[in-house]
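Exam revision sheet. Question 4 asks you to relate a sequence to its structure. Input first:
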Amino acid sequence: MQKIFKENTFASLKTVLIVEDDYISSLLFQEYLKMENFHILSAHNGKEAVSIVENRKNKIMIVLMDILMPEMNGVEAARRIKKINHSIPIIAQTSQAYNLKNYDLSYFDSIITKPIDFRKLKQIVNKYFLEYIEVYIDGRIIEMGRKISKKIKVKKFECPIL
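Answer key, structure tokens:
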């Protein structure tokens, strides 16, 4: 018999949606997170981000969102994304730190300012990934969820090796 419950194993599921209208900033985020073995999806504005989340609502683990963007700003996009899936952590990233008082930031789980301190970004991103649990059978995920405010009780069970 082999135990098939694994906790905090998510190497193939580390999917981050980067929402950034500035090409250079987007490229920097992508390259850094790829070095950390994250799978990257990208959007150039809030409208694209909402569409991506609608189509992959349970596949995206974290959204890294600029606030000032064309078509739909990050605050409105974050509000809509939280309606689709309230458990997706959304990290605001902005160069307008002095101007944040003009925005409702309640839809964001964390905020990081530009220029980005990549050590701080890594800490924030890893914090959210460490909150996941997954249950596998034959190498396939059968259950995945975010621990919210209460403890999730997952039974450990055994399965015969066939």
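Marking note for examiners. The CA atoms of residues 81 and 126 lie 21 Å apart.
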